[in-house]
Write a structure and sequence with these properties.
The structure is a homodimer of 225-residue chains. With 225 residues, chain A is α/β, with parallel strands linked by helices. Helices cover 26% and strands 30% of the residues of chain A.
Chain lengths: 225, 225
């Protein structure tokens, strides 16, 4: 049976939330997921920012680059420094959560600020699925990214904006999308597609990323324009 | 001889600036380039936002989706509607500028807001170089993307943060970067590199994107943390 990816809403539940040090969420859905989180793990500098908002994470994981000596002393019970330089703070936080037994992880604040970090953070989702076999969703203020592989079904709604990013597929066919898909060579080729109804399907032979918006195009135009 | 990519600063000159409808620039370098532009072409909704700031672009190009009837009437002399749906507003604006004879284009406001748009906009740089043979730079609040191919030299400074995104290289070797490069399979693998001195070099057999920051890592930590 093909894997099924449900819609995400403000009541979606996750084992853990990893709060990264990009733009702090400002939309209702990511904010609500953060508010209701069972376990919150902040990436390095995001810990300080989260605490300054009057909250307390369960853990702060990273290379310690963005923490002052004072801060490290004060919050030593929840801080876990990992200095190895082969990966980024988001991946260190992911490993930490996996070691705690969490398998269903929401990433917040992973986009915004430096665009190369944004691209790196999104790109890592493919590896988390492949290497750690976890279910992860990266939520932004506009929608959410998931990493998928092979044949999959995705919950959707009429008018939902959908973008596909091909990682290593040579076959990539869709059912239930406004525009025909193919095994895209360039990033932009799979963007700005649209769901026709409450589900679409992908038949592929490799890894890909899917971005689905919270709102239909009409609603986006009303709210953001 | 290998192609050379200079550093960008607030006095860098371009034939035209294309202002996209992502986040409006807020850093000094993109703002100064916008202020000193010879020709400003806004993508669809960015035109309205630019005018609301008390400025006047030379042209507004797009599918007209984000413009009211009134707005279209009032600014009909500078508005150029292109309804074809095979490409996005940024590409329509690019074609418009090329038809005016502009070959050296700066893109501003192309990142931020919906992340799939951001990815699409960045990804298009490769095509603009390949199809239109233009020199283009996409400037964000943190740094700038360029599309490159084959063997190239890049101006840099010690500590400049550099990220590479492989599009279709099977060979990708660098000189003058902190970390060794290779023909990356995943987006994140080429991120978070660093320039050692005032130039680095890439020897490759295909297309790639390079992001260079305005500031060194130390300066970024001081300003943004």
């Amino acid at each position: 049976m093909s894997k099924y990816y449900p819609l995400i809403n403000k009541n979606s539940e996750f084992d853990a939330v990893i709060l990264c040090d990009g733009d702090y969420p400002s939309a209702e859905i990511p904010l609500n997921i953060l508010r209701n989180a069972n376990f919150i793990c902040c990436c390095d500098g995001a810990g300080n920012k989260y605490i300054r908002r009057g909250k307390m994470p369960n853990a702060i994981v990273g290379d310690g680059d963005s923490m002052s000596k004072n801060f490290k002393r004060k919050y030593k019970d929840i801080i876990h420094i990992e200095t190895e330089q082969d990966t980024n703070d988001q991946t260190k936080a992911t490993r930490f959560c996996i070691n705690k037994g969490f398998k269903n992880i929401a990433y917040l604040g992973a986009t915004g600020k430096r665009e190369d970090h944004t691209l790196g953070n999104i790109g890592h989702l493919t590896n988390y699925r492949k290497e750690f076999n976890i279910k992860s969703v990266m939520l932004t203020d506009y929608g959410y990214f998931v990493s998928a592989q092979g044949n999959c079904r995705f919950a959707s709604f009429k008018g939902q904006q959908v973008s596909f990013f091909n990682i290593d597929c040579s076959k990539f066919e869709s059912k239930g999308t406004k525009w025909k898909t193919h095994a895209y060579k360039y990033w932009w080729q799979g963007t700005l597609n649209e769901a026709l109804d409450d589900e679409f399907e992908i038949k592929s032979d490799g890894s890909f990323l899917v971005f689905r918006t919270y709102l239909s195009k009409n609603m986006e135009n009303k709210i953001f324009k």
